[in-house]
Amino acid sequence: MGRLVRRDERLAAGSLFSLQASPVRAQITAVAPAVANQAQAPGAANQTDTDDYATRMVKYIPAEVVAFYLAADKLFVKGAEAVNSNIADIFVAAHLFYFSIAVFVLALIGTPIYLRQQAADNEPWQVQAAVSTVAFAIWAYAVHGQVFVSIYSSAISAFLVLVFTFSSGFIKPGK
């Protein structure tokens, strides 16, 4: 299973989602009928793998970027707790908010760059990058990142995660 969501060949060009059922195996006769018939076993002719709703939900959450953010975001909190330890710890404590912003922006910008690097030549990485960047921002808020300390609400974060998780599976990258 690759990191990126596999395209749904049945969607019209430019479509991002469909409310129709999405089988895990999709027909591709219109794409390459001769190649599909030759390359596959007799029982599986004209089929290719397509990600289903649950798989798309999981793949849209940029787990690697969220893990980076969690580790990097908490890195400077320890320095802020130390009182008069040394010059470096005092500097971190005085500028903690700026370090938090830098870590958040680095991860936010890094999400689409990372996904582009993971994509093969024909994969629709742009849709995944957009959805995963939004997912990262929601998860950064939900894990109570330092940049959100003054505006954090556990009720809002839970609501955002639930809405995103439910709705992200409906987004299908097209042709």
Characterise the protein shown here.
This protein has a domain at 53-168. The chain has a two-stranded antiparallel ribbon with strand order 1-2. It has 7 helices and 2 strands, in the order βαβαααααα. The radius of gyration is 21 Å and the shape is elongated. It is mainly alpha-helical. Helices cover 56% and strands 3% of the residues. It has helices at 33-39, 53-60, 63-81, 87-94, 96-118, 125-142, 154-168, and strands at 25-27, 47-49.
SSE inventory with pairings:
Elements: E1 25-27, H1 33-39, E2 47-49, H2 53-60, H3 63-81, H4 87-94, H5 96-118, H6 125-142, H7 154-168
Antiparallel strand pairs: 1-2
Give helix and strand order, one letter per element, not per position: EHEHHHHHH
Count the DSSP helices.
Answer: 7
Largest sheet, in brief, is: 2 strands, antiparallel
Q: Rough shape?
A: elongated
Oligomer: single chain
Structure in a nutshell:
The chain is mostly helical. The chain is 56% helix and 3% strand.
What tags apply to this protein structure?
elongated; 7 helices; mainly alpha; about 180 residues; two-stranded antiparallel sheet; 2 strands
